[in-house]
Amino acid sequence: MLMGDKNHINIECIECCGKNLYIGTNDCFIYHFMLDEKVSTSGKVTFAATKQLHKYLGFKKPVNELKAASALTRLLVLCDNTITLVNMMNLEPVPTGARIKGAVTFTLNENPVSGDPFCVEVCIISVKRRTIQMFMVFEDRVQIVKEVVTPEQPCAVAVDGYYLCLALTTQYIILNYNTGISQDLFPYCSEEKRPIVKRIGRQEFLLAGPGGLGMFATVDGISQRAPVHWSENVIGAALCFPYVVALDEEFITVHSMLDQQQKQTLPFKEGHILQDFEGKVIVATNKGVYILVPLPLEKQIQDLLASHRVEEALVLAKGARRNIPKEKFQVMYKRILQQAGFIQFAQLQFLEAKELFRSGQLDVRELISLYPFLLPTSSSFIRSHPPLHEYADLNQLTQGDQEKMIKCKRFLMSYLNEVRSTEVANGYKEDIDTALLKLYAEANHESLLDLLVSENFCLLTDSAAWLEKHKKYFALGLLYHYNGQDAAALQLWVQIVDGDIEDSTRSDLYEYVVDFLTFCSDRDLVWKYSEWVLQKNEEVGVQIFTKRPSEEQEKNINPDDIISCLNKYPKARIKYLEHLVLERKIEKEKYHTHLAALYLEAILQLKSGTTDNCVETVELLLKLRSLLQKSDLYRIHFILDKIRGTDLHMESAILYGKLEEHEKALHILVHELKDFGAAEEYCVWNSENRDLQYRRRLFHMLLSVYLRADTSDCALVMAAVDLLNNHAAEFDAALVLQLVPDSWSVQLLSPFLSGAVRQSIHTKRMTQVALGLAQAENLIYKYEKVKHKGTPILLSDKKVCQVCQNPFCEPAFVRYPNGGMVHTHCAASRHLNSSVTPHSSRSSSET
Amino acid sequence: MKKPDGKVVLLGDMNVGKTSLLHRYMERRFQDTVSTVGGAFYLKQWGPYNISIWDTAGREQFHGLGSMYCRGAAAVILTYDVNSLQSLVELEDRFLALTDSASADCIFAIVGNKVDLSDDCASPPDEHRPEKAAAGCSSKVRKQVRVEDAIALYKKILKYKMLDEKDVPAAEKMCFETSAKTGYKVDYLFETVFDMVVPIIVRQKAEGPPQTVDITDYKPAKRTKSGCCA
Ligand SMILES: Nc1nc2c(ncn2[C@@H]2O[C@H](COP(=O)(O)OP(=O)(O)OP(=O)(O)O)[C@@H](O)[C@H]2O)c(=O)[nH]1
Ligand SMILES: [Mg+2]
């Protein structure tokens, strides 16, 4: 546009500031264009340039450099070693003619130190050898600030604050122009290859290094990023965060500063200028100016994700953090993490996927929705738009590979299980738990039951249908139960036990149902299934009544109803009565009598039967005896009537014993049963908790029974002798001697007699000892009494109470044996507080 | 980007296996490498600290960059190839001077890599001629550099740095022989070095960054953009 066909005119330098584009040519002209940015609907950005002005500077020299200072509306123009200030709009030189002379090249300090907004800081390489000068440039004047002499001739410079980054003839250095301290960076032969010094941010520069490297260096002289690798003959470099753009004779290359990788290469010939202006990268040949537009960051990231370059996409996104407003960044970054998660997921990299989903706070339903049929039909979920991934569903993702499918499902199971109790699940717990239930059911996973018996949010209709489809009837029952539909649950389980439907989850389902009913508080249900349960197994089934938690029992079911219900099931009935009498210890005559009668009935029935159920009979007998002995509540006569005429002698003896008819009882034991051992035991347990007299009376009675026999039965005599000899202590020897027949020899009874004599002597001596001790104690008390009477105690108003330290104002006082005197009320309260002085309570005396 | 708390630099002639060592340690793998261009770095979390590990290029062309990479380093790992005496010589001749810019309390480790290539039989003291190597043990070559040579170098370094042997870790402790290929002693090397670097980091943090450039009177001005339009 500038030169038409004038071939000798070349672009020498450019400057772009806002919409203003300035171009300096080799024939000493400056051109001013306005750039118009247009964004097409497809997002493509185009620029249209309109020429505003051009201006001839009046030399035969090229325009070397242009820099805009927009705050001053000035354009700084370097031509013929002089920097002039011209108006940015009309390109007229400032009237004062302010200028900087003797500049080879110059640069602006983008991190100025003066703090004056209407001043720009300019650094020049002077025509004077080895000299750098700093200027302050105002609207219409310039002022030199500093001149620094460098160790070698400088050929390129960049500034940040007080720091100059200089390319000298043989090396790069950092020089603080304020302190003069310098720091070598690295050697570089500026004569062989043109050096590049470019400020890329606060206190950091980019330098052309050996071997086509783009080296990063901070003002401290260290490198914080690995170098980027350009070609050997790089001409210029520009920054377009987070990229470094470089130009050589054939290409424009783009490297990321984040991972140093080369990201893009554009063929571009004859370029000789590459610069960035406020985010715009401009490249120019001798004849043309091109603006490079970076794709929006999000688009770049999306492209990377689309080509599954997850790592790079994340690095780019993270690197962009400080260039995007926080809110916006977070939304964007989360989305990227989620997308990256799905890419990893599709590659079955589940660990990575999980981490990305977690950090991206993925709505779990996005993942669930990939799996067909998992989301409940009622779920309001719709996938986010634009989609996070390219897959319709798991079938498409795995392309029908069953093994992959199973892996994916396994992953979802563990993932859902992990997140369901975290805050990620808030708001859609139903969806998560229902999906989890479906996965478990389908995979026949044992956790299905755990899920259903613990707190869960599985949706009933959806889950029920699914469980039914997968024949998980037991689990279905649990689901019903969890949803308060115990009737439905029981119905299913009963069907399973009865074999109407098949589900082998539990082999002990019957017991499970019994247990369930035991703890079921719905008494209609308990009644409804009690018949079924008892029919299956009376003894186990009766647990629904016997094992019920006691608070339930009391308020809900009347024992009498249960007993009448159990009439058909004798074993169960006995168990239930045992439960009432023995476990719950209900003290009601009717239960005790009933139980005893039932035992008796059962025993008699067993005895009348032909088969000898010895073990069972004995067991029942023991139970009956124990009941008869221990309980005092049953109707003794009623039982006695029933027992009369049977051979249950022991039992009748017990009953007589209960009636205190010990003679009768002992008679039965001795004469009917001829069980002397039992007779002795009888004496023992009937006199338990009674005094010695009572016991002696019983033993004596037994002895009489033995001896009174008309028939001089040898066995009875022996029993009598043994009784005496073995239980000498239980007898009153004097009474015994009256009873014993004269014909018995002393020898026969010698153990009894010697025991009795010893006992008698022992008693006598013990009594004497007790007497002696009592006399001694009495003497001590007498002594003390005399002693206390002996010394008078004086009470005056000068004495104070040892407790409250107040004087005594009444004659009554308390004196402790140790001599201390206190008020009566103080003593009383002191006793109350129980902080009593030793032995005071017993021997305190009052005067 | 996380700011590293301390820096460890690998120096040594090209082809001795610096990149391979680092790769083995960080990625737990040994794979073919290309000769490093310029330099590369990794970040390693070590306890509460981020340690940056710089892999430098051994090629002569990039030699000039070494000094900048070493600036402020808390540790320098000088690497040679046990099968190349020259690579050990180069450490003294060419690389030692680069460490002048390292932190004053920088620690040094000397690492002979590629021990997998040579047999383990101690070579007679003055036999460094490779043509005889095949005689002893099958396909393996005879080691050209012995640990004692490395220890001698370590002592020279101390002299060069004017350090007292009493004040620094013992030579025997700081001379390693490794194989990036088999992984032999690679973790041990880096972990030993990192453990020694931690106290240096702590000290550097306490004293503020070691500045060779004086910035005491530099006050960052408010960022007023010089060329701001719109
Ligand atoms: N057998 C064996 N070969 C190794 C070992 N370490 C490195 N190599 C090989 O030696 C060659 C050079 O390894 P690099 O790690 O690239 O060497 P470098 O020191 O980084 O070289 P520059 O980057 O040029 O400085 C490669 O071919 C490696 O495979 C080792 O322990 N044993
Ligand atoms: Mg390398």
TrEMBL record, chain A:
GO terms for biological process: autophagy; endosomal vesicle fusion; intracellular protein transport. InterPro entries: Clathrin_H-chain/VPS_repeat, CNH_dom, Vam6/VPS39/TRAP1, VPS39/TGF_beta_rcpt-assoc_1, VPS39/TGFA1_Znf. It comes from the Eukaryota. The keyword Protein biosynthesis does not apply. It is found in: Cytoplasm. Keywords: Cytoplasm, Protein transport, Transport. GO terms for cellular component: cytoplasm; membrane. Residues 8-281 form the CNH domain. CHCR repeats lie at residues 547-711. Signal peptide: none annotated. Pfam families: CNH, Vps39_1, zf-Vps39_C. This is CNH domain-containing protein. It comes from Callipepla squamata (Scaled quail).
Automatic annotation (TrEMBL), chain B:
It is found in: Cytoplasmic vesicle membrane; Cytoplasmic vesicle, Phagosome membrane; Golgi apparatus. GO terms for molecular function: G protein activity; GTP binding; metal ion binding. Keywords: Cytoplasmic vesicle, Golgi apparatus, GTP-binding, Hydrolase, Lipoprotein, Magnesium, Membrane, Metal-binding, Nucleotide-binding, Prenylation, Protein transport, Transport. It is a lipid-anchor. It catalyses: GTP + H2O = GDP + phosphate + H(+). GO terms for biological process: protein transport. PANTHER family: DRAB5-RELATED (PTHR24073). NCBIfam families: small_GTP. This is Ras-related protein Rab-20.
